[in-house]
Amino acid sequence: MRYSQERLYAMNSFAYRIKRIAALTLALLTLAALTACGEKPDPADPSASVIDVADDPASPVTAAPTAVPTPTPEPTPVPTDTPEPTATPRPSQAANPSYQGRTIYLTFDDGPYKYTDQVLDILDQYNIKATFFTVGNFVKAYPEQAKHIVERGHVLGCHSQTHEMANLYHGTDGFKKELNQWRETVKSVFGYDAGAYVMRFPGGTTNSTIGGRKNRGPYVEAANSLGYKAFDWNVCLNDRWLAGNKDGLPLNEYFWKSYLDSLSMYKNIEPLVFLIHDTEPESVKILPRVIEDLIAKGFKFGVCTDLDDNYLM
Ligand SMILES: [Zn+2]
Q1: CA 93 to ligand 1 centroid distance, Å
Q2: What protein residues have CB closer than 5 angstroms to ion ligand 1?
Q3: Which of 2, 235, 256, 291 has the smallest count of CB within 10 Å of its CB?
Q4: pLDDT (tens digit, 9 = 90+) per residue, 37-50?
Q5: Distance from C-alpha of 107 to C-alpha of 152, rounded to nearest angstrom
Q6: How far away, in angstroms, is 239 Cα from ligand 1 center?
């Protein structure tokens, strides 16, 4: 079929107009998408509006568990609403953005406790080794669970003797005393020094009793002077910060969401250190699901004694 010159011109002109409209629409859609993305805070950006709960005076303050004055079969577990919150990441720690082949460090705090054996069974099932930051008074109260941690190839780390903030953060003498008491407790329970030289500050190094990041220096130096490397965390279940559950989700959903959110928020940080409490039955319940998700994402698992330096938020 042949078209007249006029008809060809009209057809080209029409096609041109359609193309212009399509291009304009595409440009508008792209602009809208970029604007939406741009409003999300960048976790690697220190100016991003990530709330540092540890330094937030409005948040619950004390992270101290009820101490175990004498060994009893059922020491009172650490109060569930204690903030051991996740702090703001620092940009200097940015690293590999993908998960495949990376190592994540599972750490269990505040035990040993009556659920610790269940955690050990789950870890065995997936052939994973982890770090347990234990409280000396609980090592005394649950000696069998403490021994199982070591016998089954995990790292027995220090989380102070009493977990009492008042004992820990009113001068480095009291802080050092707590670390030394923990080691003496481990020696007496095991009959030898089964404790590793890795530790976690109760409440983290940025907790409000210590006075936040700006005041932690002497305490970190004190830990290091006794041979310990100190480890904060970035990934967590928020299983000691139920106040963060603003939507009133069932615990398993809140923990799952906290896990996904924190992993996503800190995905560029190295190392990824995951805080879980082996004193919380709901945390133990969700553990297999979390581990399977980490495996599916391509993670390997390590222990804190493999790390060469402190990890401080
Ligand atoms: Zn703790």
Answers
A1: 24
A2: 109-110, 202
A3: 2
A4: 322 333 333 333 32
A5: 15
A6: 11
